[in-house]
Design goal:
It catalyses: a 1,2-diacyl-sn-glycero-3-phospho-(1'-sn-glycero-3'-phosphate) + H2O = a 1,2-diacyl-sn-glycero-3-phospho-(1'-sn-glycerol) + phosphate. 68% of the residues lie in helices and 0% in strands. By secondary structure, it is an all-alpha fold. The chain has one domain.
Length: 161
C-alpha cells in the first residue's frame, strides 16, 4: 500500500482491522486473493453450524462490510483501495451458500470467486463502475460471490465431487 494511504489507517482501529482483512489486505501483491484466503478459516469455523447460522453470518458480513469498507475508504480518502478486502471475505461467504464445506469445494469455490471478482462480467462491472461508497465496494463482490455460488452449484449437479 502506498505510504500516504497507509498512514491514514490503523490496525488498532477495529473497523480498519476488519476492512483490511485482519491485515491480509496489506500484503503488497494480490491483496484481493489474500483477502479471499483470509475468509477460509472463518468458513472452516462454520462447518458444523446449521444453515441458518451460516446464512445469518453471510448477511451480517455483507451489511457490516458496507460500514467497514465505506468508513475505511473515507479515512484513506480513496474509493475501494486494493487493501480493503472485507468485501472479498463477504463474497467468499456468499460463494458457499448451501454448499458443503469440503476441501475440494473450498478450492473450487475460491477459484470461481476469484475469477468472477477479477473478470467482473455483467452485471458486476456495472455495479463496480457506477456505485460508490461502502455499498459500491461491497456489492460487486457480493454479486461475484453469488455468481460463483450458482456456478459451483451447477458444477456440483453436473459433476458431483
Amino acid at each position: 500500500m502506498q505510504r500516504q494511504y497507509r498512514e491514514r489507517v490503523s490496525m488498532r482501529n477495529p473497523v480498519h482491522f476488519c476492512a483490511l482483512g485482519f491485515g491480509s489486505g496489506l500484503i503488497p501483491v494480490m491483496p484481493g486473493t489474500f483477502g479471499s484466503a483470509a475468509a477460509v478459516p472463518l468458513l472452516a469455523a462454520t462447518i458444523a453450524a446449521p444453515s441458518w447460522i451460516f446464512i445469518s453470518l453471510t448477511i451480517l458480513f455483507a451489511f457490516i462490510g458496507i460500514y467497514f469498507c465505506g468508513r475505511t475508504a473515507d479515512d484513506m480518502q480513496v474509493h475501494d483501495h486494493g487493501s480493503i478486502v472485507w468485501d472479498e471475505i463477504a463474497g467468499m461467504f456468499c460463494t458457499f451458500l448451501f454448499v458443503p464445506l469440503t476441501p475440494l469445494h473450498l478450492l473450487a469455490g475460491f477459484v470461481l470467486f476469484r475469477l468472477f471478482d477479477i473478470l467482473k462480467p455483467w452485471p458486476i462491472i456495472v455495479v463496480d463502475k457506477r456505485l460508490h461508497g461502502g455499498v459500491g465496494i461491497m456489492l460487486d463482490d457480493v454479486l461475484a460471490g453469488l455468481m460463483a455460488c450458482l456456478s459451483l452449484h451447477a458444477i456440483l449437479i453436473l459433476w458431483p465431487f
